[in-house]
Please model this.
Amino acid sequence: MAESAITVSHTRLQEFIVTALVAMKMPRAIAEVTAGLMVRTDLRGVDSHGIGMLPRYHELWQAGYIRMDAEPSVVRDEVATGLLDGQKGLGHYVSTQAMKKCIEKARTYGLGMVAVRNSGHYGAAANYSMMALEHDMIGLSMTNSPYVAMVPTFGRKAMLSTNPLSFAAPAGRHAPFVLDMATTTVAIGKLSVASRWNKPIPSGWALDDSGTPTTDPFVALKHRLVTPLGGTRDLGSHKGYGLGVMVDILSGVMSGAVYGDLFYRSDRQERRVQDVGHCFAAIDPVRFRPLGEFKHDMDDMFEALKSSAKADGHTRIWIAGEPEAESERKRRRDGIPLAPALLAQSNEMARGLGIAPMV
Model:
């Protein structure tokens, strides 16, 4: 039976994460940026990629897979492109630096694309695509991971990560379009959320070790076998599989980072190097047409979609990003609900770091 949530304010969550990261030797300025992105993720209702990742980051740091004191470096800085090295740090800070470079280049040339190698988990993909919105630009963000989970269509072995991507575009009167999705049917983090609340998962999200769909989140987490977006070939899993490979090409192969199952086929695991790859882009729509016209047509498209005929039993058609925006407004006001299991795990980590518990 699911337990009741404990509600924590976003300001307290920010303080706790910063204190924990600094205790792990992360410079305070970088910790502030990292914590801000993690809290924004929880505010937006993406509970799989915010505070819920902190105990995992602590484990990776203890095991030597993350350097919390890492300072990113510039490998290449070309006219409209660039490449950064995360120096084995968490991915949040280097990703903000990469997206800032994309925006600067797009302001000058209309388009900017920057890749990152030798990084770590960067949290929610939308954190970076949304940075472009502040400049009335279109943003793109994607990442891979060394830890495979996606089983290719017609396969039975995990060969790719969940390889998420995010696309954000500004509108006028309406909230911006913010798509943030794994290229698998479900993100691994959502399996973790289900396990914290002891809730079954939908059939088709994940497989057991025999390749049979499971509804047990603990079995799903143990075997880490998730289906490509679509689930089965008949329902279009080959499309999710193809998107996953695309993300790995741009994030991993193009940047010189890990890709596919290379982490397990190289000496990276032995050397405790995750070598995560990311890819970011910013596009300035003004280079194609006046901004006012672009935003007018974005609003027109959204209004047409939202006013179209509703299916029986439904009263609203959503645009990507709207549920998260509503969650952010509510959680800023009412606080962020945390699973008791996550709170206990975070407080245990705090004791080990010698800092005060979250609550």
In short: The CA atoms of residues 86 and 119 lie 4 Å apart. The domain at 186-226 is CATH 3.30.60.50 (Wheat Germ Agglutinin (Isolectin 2); domain 1). The longest strand covers residues 111-119.
